[in-house]
Specification:
heterodimer; A: alpha+beta; 4 domains; 8-stranded antiparallel sheet; 5-stranded antiparallel sheet; 27 helices; about 40% helix; B: alpha+beta; Collagenase (Catalytic Domain); 5 domains; 26 helices; 21 strands; globular
Chain lengths: ~850, ~800
């Protein structure tokens, strides 16, 4: 047993060597010497002088023929080896790498939203330092910043240091010392050309991003170049899995981070900046307070030293280093001006923070052959030939402070088709420019500008603000003057694309239909980028910022940050794709517009001579848009409100949607969804394409099941527990729904096929719930039984006076199902009881 | 992928074969050269040349470049050696919220072993077990048989590299052994597994330093381990630790032992003795205690105080924030008073950290102290003891930074009504310091060898606990080893001084220290027993076992409960709740720090509800309870007796009033609107309590008392009383809120579950439950007719559930049988 164990352990450790030998030449060597005797059989092993790892004289290691590039680390190329000469001053400094694919293998497009599979895609990043460890050894250690000290307690500081020992990712033997330059030479070639989480895929994402195995024989370095602030490594890497071989070109930028991190600004729940949510680090103080905190992500923006005084005096000044985006030279020419405009539109917002010309986009001069989109010193808007309809505003941060180091915005070609469909189904009824199979370049350009601004918003640190649009009233959305002045949502960071509430008779023009950088956005930029006076301590600055935020938010409701993306999107006010403060009215107007568009669908979208596929596609988008309106209203049933506050305002944070809003939402569903939406039927198109009414029925079924669900019951129960009888309670809700689904069973009238379909879904759901809830301690089980009993009675009495055979069969079927669920078990019990008690 | 795997497998196999081959060949070469003693000596001088760096301790370590050799004198063979391994510096991001292991100072293994020469030029590392003992070495004696059955485990065998016949010592090479996971230095296997650590990465691990002290050999090693990124993940990420290993030689002269007695709460080392009973075995134990001998025996024997030869020295971690040091020291030193009773002056010393003493005690297994952990954890530290005698060799107390937060919440909640100083978001250093002192006294009890004595509190009267003058002289807590830290039942009008609100070392603690540490004249077992008898004759509560963890279901003796106070759980609970009622409405304001959110209020509220639950549970344990008084035959009275029915009834009344009548005072909408808490956490307390009161285990306790012929609380009367309270509205058609409806459903659900579970049992309980359910069904039926609306549908449903439960028990189990599931 023991022997077995030992060999298992050995095998494991050897496995590691196998995996690693690509990276560590010295291992390969020892393996080779060991395999020699095996091949030769009985001949004794020749005494091999062990390869000594001891440092050699500098000149021997770095011959004059070496190709040298100077940077914060000096890189020497000697033959095929890359030797890093690290000055003593760099040891312990924080170094950051970002790794990208520069040319991707065509056969690899990640089904997971295209993750890490297009040229210039991010694949990983890391913060590490080089440290001397042991005699003639240099360790590469990963840096963690997850635990920090709030106050100045020295003892606590050192306790945290001892409890956060940096993991060693690699150890390199010193090749030579350069005594004059006080630097140390190590050979990084093999490590750079191996599959490791520092210079390759981040380990958490690897399994999703690259399913094949690294193949060292088919991978090699192209070049390693040092610049003053960065080192660029380019390589070819091959990953293989069976017959599947994926070769790509990769780039790692190694960046020296500033010695002192930028002054950080703490994340505030009330303003929508990126930061690691809920927290990227934990702070400790000597009183035992442990708090999770995060810093916002923002660019290091400061006035030039000579302008500093003027800045604090309130003058508009230029920043020492503006944010400059380069447009990928591979971008189609006609869109370039709009992309640039989308970036430059933010200048106005930065002026609020005291900076002029703070952000701009530039074209790369055609003559400039040296421009490299992967060079970490550039921010680039990258254009991708891709079928994905999306764009990403990606940026990289210094983990210590949240300083944005660089940004690469990813623009996927097919975003244009998405823009067409959105604009067509949302604004098609009110903008004649949209009533065409192809938009004019001018209109498409404006749409691109709008998306460009949204992504740049991300790149300067802003999160989505899905709640922003809920601050606009329905009346304002339809008021031409108002909406053209203010925009239909205060934030371009909302998913509130176009004004779908405005009606044709309101005569709203494009400036009232398009989202733009709004009041919230400029406020957020001001909040994130305005510098606090130098004279304040960190604590005073924090207090001032806090007070300012509180006052500002109290003064203008439109500055509300309603989050999105994360769990907070469950709050109905924070929904995506919605508009206005009243989902029922917004949905009603939206549907009115959809009706008009649907009527003209083929006329407006069909290209003569083309197939009907695209029109069918647009019809599906139209149904999806209808589905959004249904979803928006549904979310209010049992919904909660959430208003972040860090207690300076003392206001309530959580609340429940009021009774009437929920009741109106149920009425809306009864009216617009459960009373068959015949207007969506497009029989002409159904005969020409692969569309049919089942997509609408699927929505009906999904929503009805969602409403008859324990999750929703729990929400209503929570509201009742908190608000008592003023809440929209479960019995009231169940009754409202019942009245809608079975109106003609209760009151009489024809039961159509679609309605029979809905009623069967209802009965199936509750008959499944009754036994499932038979041991629950809430009211829902008792109430559903009562509901089922009265439905059973209605079905029975309906059978008495209905003649239609289909309807009779339907009611009979329902009655049987209900009786079975309600009474079968009880009848057995009743009989047993009688027999025993006799 | 498959192809790849098999390829890899082939590679591993071939490398393994290669490795085996080379091992074999080197072994052969060595054997041919190391035959005669002379050549081995020569080998010594070639091996340990002038280049060697030597660290000397009770054995020698030689370092030659990157190789390490250990030289063991023959006199050391067979001697017990202890290695204590701790984390020196711990990997960043290794700890998780639910796995607080992995702080600097955490114990990762201790190993007791000895060296022995083995056949074939080997030096063996073996470990002995002391679980079974026999000293009779005669022909028929048990010792020889025992030795056959207790073979010592062989931890490692080393090839002897050289011997030095002039110094009588043996040299082995340690390099490879130290550079891989091994049995002596580093993580214990279990800890490695529970910490999720995978393989050790040898090429990123190294020996950092070695230090030789006369009594201690110290290694510091850096080791990198791979750990799956998340549980079950195949992606590994490295974690690097600095490991401190201290190796000490145990003294030849054993500490004198003291036999354990289950009536006195000392920790013990157990063994089975084969000599004492010729027909069987005897389970015996020695108490765990420090080696304490008077420096002046004659003074000591004359009853004078004497300083110990070696005091218990506690070093304080240099990482502890400075302001807490004096309070921690105070908490530890308070025990000196107890040792004076046992005849020792200054038995405990505290060594404050200074600039260069950075954690010096962590490098030496002879030294004890308080380790600071900047985070949270539950561990009360540990003691390392000699398995032969119970001698405590090293004690480690933990001070987690988050303990301050826990103490804050405890005091705010339990003493908030009594001490206005607590009404703030951060306590003054003085108040927090005093809390910390009491807390450290508690922890120190563990380090002195004591066991928790939760029964002691039941000896204290409520009147005394509320009496300011009595408190000046006595501790309100029966024993500092009990979890209770705060006088939660004093009332504002009692005018208790804040200092009397905190737990102190009690008379019974002092008595225990005296019993364990005083040297007695021979034969000491008689003396120690006499002391116990005297104390029991005086009617002073001694000790009747440790409190079980968990609530009512497992508690047998209601007096033995963690953290309760006084001899009357019902009255204590009422007083405690009266105080909580004064605290609850103020939580939002008392805990508020501007701009920092409401998290502290939410945390405090949860703690308050938990505290409320504990008061309920202390009383609930009375129901079906049995008193246990451990006695030997030379003591009068019964060991077991039943809790009087009146007390049980009072407890049930208390629960009806305070738990099942919806406790509206805990319903705090203002707080719920600002935090993620809600009234459901109170509902959960109610339902779990009801569930346990209707549990098999509780009911069987009652049945036991009844069948024992005692006039206990009869199970059917108990069920009537319980349901009368839960369904009290039925009598007068009172209105029902949501909480009451849910409570009633919980009751019926549990009843039906029990009915069905017991449908084939041979216990009377089944019949009792059936009768009860039939009665309840009738009552509920009446209710369904008298009510309207939601209440009517509620009672109809209950009626149907009971009917099905009673007469259709064969119905299949549904998915949702857990009444505490989120499904309502």
């Amino acid at each position: 047993m023991r022997a077995y164990f030992l060999s298992a352990a050995l095998a494991l450790s050897m496995l590691f060597v196998c995996y690693f030998n690509a990276g560590a030449q010295q291992h390969k060597d020892t393996n080779k010497t060991q395999t020699v005797p095996l091949i030769k059989g009985a001949t004794p092993a020749k005494p091999v002088t062990p390869p000594t790892n001891l440092p050699k004289p500098y000149k021997e290691v770095i011959p004059i023929s070496a190709k040298t590039s100077q940077g914060f680390i000096v890189v020497h190329q000697v033959g095929e080896r890359y030797l890093f000469e690290i000055p003593d001053s760099i040891f312990g400094r924080s170094i950051f790498t970002v790794n990208r694919i520069t040319r991707s293998a065509q056969d690899w497009r990640n089904p997971f939203a295209g993750l890490c599979s297009y040229g210039n895609d991010w694949i990983g990043q890391a913060m590490f330092s080089f440290e001397k460890s042991g005699p003639d050894k240099i360790a590469l250690k990963m840096i963690s910043t997850t635990e920090r000290v709030t106050d100045n307690d020295q003892a606590l500081e050192s306790a945290l240091t001892d409890n956060n020992f940096k993991p060693i990712y690699a150890i390199f033997p010193v090749k030579a010392y350069n005594k004059e330059a006080r630097s140390v030479v190590i050979d990084l070639t093999d490590y750079l050309n191996s599959d490791n989480p520092i210079f390759g895929y981040t380990s958490g994402i690897k399994i999703l991003a690259m399913p094949a195995t690294f193949s060292p024989e088919r991978s090699f370095l192209h070049s390693v170049k040092a610049y003053p602030e960065n080192i660029e490594v380019t390589s070819t890497r091959t990953y293989a899995s069976g017959n599947y071989v994926l070769t790509g070109e990769y780039n790692s930028s190694i960046i020296l981070l500033s010695k002192k991190p930028m002054i950080a600004r703490a994340l505030d729940d009330r303003v929508g900046f990126f930061g690691v949510s809920p927290a990227d680090y934990t702070t400790y103080d000597a009183d035992g307070h442990v708090r999770n905190q995060a810093n916002i992500w923002r660019w290091h923006m400061e006035p030039k030293p000579e302008d500093r005084a003027r800045y604090f005096a309130g003058e508009l000044v230029e920043p020492a280093k503006p944010i400059v985006f380069y447009i990928d030279p591979a971008t189609p020419k006609k869109w370039v001006p709009y992309l640039i405009a989308g970036v430059n539109d933010w200048q106005k917002a930065f002026e609020k923070a005291g900076f002029k010309n703070a952000i701009m986009a530039k074209e790369v001069a055609p003559a400039d052959t040296t421009f490299d989109i992967n060079d970490s010193r550039h921010n680039v808007m990258v254009y991708k030939a891709s079928a994905i309809g999306n764009a990403l505003g990606h940026s990289l941060e210094d983990p210590r402070s949240g300083e944005i180091i660089e940004s690469h915005i990813q623009w996927y070609h097919s975003v244009m088709e998405v823009l067409y469909k959105w604009y067509f189904v949302q604004a098609g009824a009110i903008d004649t420019a949209a009533q065409k199979p192809q938009f004019s370049d001018e209109l498409m350009g404006q749409l691109i500008r709008f998306v460009s601004s949204h992504e740049v918003g991300h790149a300067v640190g802003l999160r989505h603000n899905w709640g922003s649009s809920s601050t606009t009233t329905i009346a304002q959305l339809r008021d031409r003057k108002w909406v053209e002045t203010h925009g239909h949502t205060p934030s371009i960071m909302d998913y509130a694309r176009f004004n779908y509430v405005a009606q044709p008779e309101d005569n709203v023009t494009q400036s009232g239909i398009f989202a733009r950088i709004g009041d919230y956005d400029t406020w957020a930029i001001e909040w994130g980028y305005r510098l606090m006076p130098d004279t304040l301590t960190a604590r005073e600055a924090q207090e001032l910022l806090n007070k300012w935020t509180t006052e500002k938010l109290a003064s203008d409701k439109r500055l509300r940050f309603g989050i999105g993306d994360d769990f907070t999107s469950k709050y109905p006010q924070n929904q995506r794709e919605d508009l206005g403060d009243d989902p029922v009215m917004a949905g009603t107007y939206g549907i009115k517009n959809l009706k008009l568009i649907k009527k003209n669908l083929i006329k407006w979208t069909q290209v003569p001579g083309a197939s009907y596929d695209r029109t069918a596609d647009i019809y599906k988008t139209l149904v999806d848009q209808y589905d959004w309106y249904i979803k928006h209203a549904t979310a209010y049933i049992g919904g909660m409100e959430f208003k972040p506050d860090n207690n300076t305002e003392g206001k309530e944070i959580y609340g429940y949607e009021p009774f009437y809003k929920q009741k109106k939402a149920v009425d809306f569903l009864n009216r617009e969804l459960f009373s068959t939406p015949e207007w969506l039927r497009n029989n002409e198109l159904y005969l020409l394409s692969n569309t049919d009414f089942s997509s609408v029925e699927a929505i009906q079924k999904r929503v009805l099941q969602q409403l008859l669900d324990q999750k929703l019951f729990n929400k209503l129960r929570a509201a009742e527990k908190s608000e008592g009888n003023t809440a929209y309670t479960l019995p009231v809700f169940l009754n409202d729904l019942y009245q809608g689904i079975f109106s003609e069973v209760i009151k009489g009238g024809e039961i159509t096929a679609n309605r029979r379909f809905l009623q069967k879904i209802y009965v199936n759901e509750i008959t499944a719930l009754i036994p499932a809830l038979s041991r629950s301690d809430g009211d829902s089980g008792s109430l559903l039984k009562i509901q089922a009993k009265s439905l059973l009675n209605s079905c029975k009495s309906g059978l008495k006076n209905r003649k239609s055979p289909v309807e009779r069969a339907h009611l009979h079927d329902l009655a049987f199902r209900l009786d079975d669920a309600l009474n079968r078990q009880l009848r057995i019990a009743e009989i047993t009881e009688k027999i025993i008690s006799k | 992928m498959k192809k790849n795997c098999s390829l890899l497998y082939f590679k591993v196999i071939s490398i393994l074969i290669a490795l085996n081959f080379s091992f074999y060949s080197t072994a052969q070469v060595k054997d041919s050269t190391s035959n005669s003693p002379n050549s081995r000596l020569r080998a010594y001088h070639t091996l340990i040349s002038g280049k060697a760096k030597t660290y000397s301790s009770f054995l020698l370590v030689h370092q030659i470049e990157d190789k390490y050799y250990m030289e063991i004198p023959d006199s050391l063979l067979g001697r017990e050696i202890l290695t204590v391994n701790r984390l020196g510096r711990t990997a960043a991001d290794f700890r998780t919220a639910d796995g607080p292991f992995g702080y600097s100072g955490d114990l990762i293994s201790e190993n007791l072993f000895h060296f022995e020469k083995g056949p074939g030029n080997k030096l063996l590392v073996k470990s002995k077990s002391y679980k079974e003992r026999a000293s009779d070495t005669t022909v028929n004696g048990m010792k020889r048989s025992l030795e056959r059955n207790n073979s010592e485990s062989l931890l490692q065998s080393f090839a002897i590299k050289a011997t030095n016949d002039s110094t009588h010592s043996t040299v082995i090479e340690l390099t490879e052994y130290l550079n891989q996971d091994n049995m002596l230095f580093g993580f214990s296997q279990t800890l490695k597994a529970s910490g999720g650590l995978g393989t050790m990465v040898n090429d990123r691990s190294y020996i950092e330093s070695v230090k030789g002290h006369p009594d201690n050999l110290f290694f510091r090693m850096v080791r990198t381990y791979n750990k799956p990124l998340s549980k079950g993940s195949s992606i590994m990420s490295p974690f690097t630790f600095e490991i401190n290993s201290s190796m000490i030689l145990l003294r030849k002269q054993l500490m004198s032992v003291r036999g354990a007695d289950k009536r006195v709460p000392f920790q013990q080392v157990d063994y089975i003795d084969f000599d004492q009973n010729p027909l069987g075995v005897v389970n015996l134990g020695y108490i765990c205690r420090w080696r304490m001998e008077p420096s002046n025996p004659s003074d000591y024997n004359r009853g004078k105080l004497s300083e110990p030869k070696v005091p218990i020295r506690m070093y304080l971690d240099a990482h502890i924030p400075k302001k807490w040091l004096p309070y921690i020291a105070d908490g530890i030193l308070r025990w000196n008073k107890a040792f004076e009773k046992a005849g020792y002056r200054n038995a405990i010393e505290v060594i404050m950290p200074n600039a260069d003493s950075n954690q010096v005690f962590l490098e030496n297994a002879h030294l004890s102290g308080v380790i600071f952990k900047p985070g949270s954890g539950e561990n009360w530290g540990n003691i390392i003891r000699d398995p032969r005698t119970g001698e405590i060799l090293q004690a480690q107390l933990n001070f987690y930074l988050q303990d301050l937060n826990k103490l804050y919440n405890h005091y705010l909640i339990q003493a908030g009504a009594l001490d206005p100083n607590s009404h703030r978001a951060t306590f003054t250093t003085d108040l927090m310091g005093r809390l910390l002192s009491s807390y450290m006294s508690q922890q120190m009890a563990n380090a002195l060898g004591l066991k928790p004595n939760s029964a002691a509190s039941a000896a204290i009267k409520i009147e005394d606990i509320r009496n300011s003058e009595w408190l000046d002289k006595h501790a309100f807590n029966g024993s500092i080893t009990d979890k209770g830290l705060i006088n939660y039942l004093a009332q504002p009008q009692d005018g208790i001084k804040p200092k009397n609100l905190l737990a102190r070392i009690s008379e019974s603690d002092i008595w225990n220290i005296n019993w364990g540490y005083r040297s007695f004249p021979f034969p000491e077992s008689k003396v120690s027993n006499r002391q116990i008898l005297e104390r029991s004759n005086l009617g002073l509560q001694i000790y009747s076992g440790e409190a079980p963890s968990g609530a009512n279901k497992t508690t047998i003796d209601p007096r033995i409960q963690n953290g309760d106070l006084s001899n009357n759980a019902v009255r204590a609970g009422k007083l405690g709740i009266a105080n909580l009622k004064k605290v609850a409405p103020n939580l939002l304001t008392w805990t508020l720090t501007q701009g920092q959110g409401y998290q502290p209020a939410s945390e405090a509220y949860k703690q308050l509800v938990a505290r409320y639950n504990e008061y309920l549970r202390y009383a609930a344990s009375e129901i079906g309870g049995i008193y246990i008084d451990i006695k030997n035959s030379d003591q009068k009275g019964n060991v077991f007796s039943f809790v009087p029915p009146l007390l049980q009834k009072q407890a049930l009344d208390f629960l009806q009033q305070e738990a099942f009548k919806t406790p509206q005072w805990l319903n705090l909408p203002k707080l719920y609107a600002r935090t993620e808490t809600d009234f459901d956490i109170v509902g959960k307390v109610q339902k779990e309590l009801l569930f346990d009161l209707l549990d098999n285990k509780t009911l069987i306790k009652l049945i036991t008392a009844e069948t024992a012929g005692k006039k206990g609380y009869s199970p059917s009367a108990y069920l009537e009383d319980l349901s009368d309270g839960i369904f009290s509205e039925l009598g007068h058609h009172g209105t029902l809120d949501n909480s009451r409806r849910e409570l009633q459903k919980t009751y019926v659900n549990k009843l039906v579950i029990l009915l069905q579970a017991m449908s084939k049992s041979d216990s009377d309980l089944s019949s009792v439950l059936r009768m009860h359910a039939m009665g309840l069904m009738k009552k509920v039926k009446g209710g369904s007719l008298a009510y309207k609306g939601i209440a009517a549908s509620h009672f109809t449903d209950l009626y149907e559930r009971l009917r099905l439960g009673l007469y259709n028990p064969a119905q299949p189990e549904r998915n949702n049988t857990n009444p505490f599931s989120t499904v309502r």
